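A student in our group prepared the protein record below, which I am reviewing. Here is the record exactly as it was handed to me.
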Amino acid sequence: MEAFISLGSNMGDKEEALRQAVALLDAHEAINVIAVSSIYDTDPVGYEDQDVFLNIVVKIDTTLQPQPLLDVCQQIEQELKRVRIVRWGPRTIDLDILLYSHDNIETETLIVPHPRMHERAFVLVPLAEIAKDVVLPSTNQTVAQHLAAVGSDGVRVYKQWSV
């Protein structure tokens, strides 16, 4: 199945945290990283009294179902010693499943498509770079249409992804 995951960091060596998380995703036997967006320097949203974030979006192919994929994402966060002090606050690493195939999923632990992704430039800009024509099943609009509505304020290219 095709899935998209958003990764973000604003504590410590932010770029290294992103690189390690992508490597751990790709090293998993049931996950193949297909594409990685550029790295974006993004202003914090919600809780604004914190450092800027580095954000990327990855496209993966996986044989995992959504809940086991979430479990892998959370294991990676733990392995990279995720620290999160307050909601929407500083964190060493954050992995969020944005889309899983064309599925709408709502469980106690997972909502896909990610419930606020269509409102967040820091998600839409990197996602549009690698998947602008993907339709969000929750809205039946493309990533590009959502990005056009939201705009890209507060999101700047930091650097191209390179292996």
User: Anything to note?
Assistant: The longest strand covers residues 53-62. The two ends are 23 Å apart (CA to CA). The helical segments are 14-27, 66-79, 121-131, 143-150. The chain is about 30% helix and 30% strand.
